[in-house]
Amino acid sequence: MLLQALKDSQIMDNEIKKLMIPHEKVAHVQSNNPLDHALLVLIKSGYTAIPVLDTDYKVQGQISKAQILDSILGIERIEMERLHDYKVDEVMSNKVPRMNQNETFGKALMLSINHPFVCIEDDEQSFIGIMTRRSILALIHRHLGK
Ligand code: AMP
User: Fold this and answer.
1) Fewer CB within 10 Å of terminal CB in the chain, N or C?
2) Of all atoms in ligand 1, which is nearest to the CA of residue 133?
3) In the chain, what percentage of residues exceed pLDDT 90?
4) What domain range includes position 42?
5) CATH number, domain at 88?
6) Gene3D superfamilies from the entry (predicted)?
């Protein structure tokens, strides 16, 4: 029933480009940044995880507060002084959901089942923004609430 409603509402035809948060509004770090910078960006932005890009704006992975804390976990305490010893690419996860801007909303919906955000790329595989689970659910709610 829900699937039929989704199909009938033409929600699947929505353009990813129009729904994404554009890159200039996305908090991110670069893979060669020191870990203390990444922790700062995560804390300041308030997000649990953010995309990692390289200097050419290509998606390399994602990094979370939990991964950072885990990497500096000593036997008896969190060794904050080690934050500057690591670079982002030594700690990040390179499994990050991504899709092209011209792919369907259905793909974003499918990827958002297991991921809170999906990286959106242009035809040159450059990062252009993210699509969040929140915006996907909000759109579905808007359509179904009519
Ligand atoms: P939301 O659905 O808004 O809670 O966002 C889900 C996840 O997407 C957040 O936990 C972050 O990991 C990521 N996210 C959302 N907005 C941004 C943003 N502006 N910059 C970086 N990451 C974001």
Assistant:
1) N
2) 2
3) 71
4) 2-144
5) 3.10.580.10
6) CBS-domain
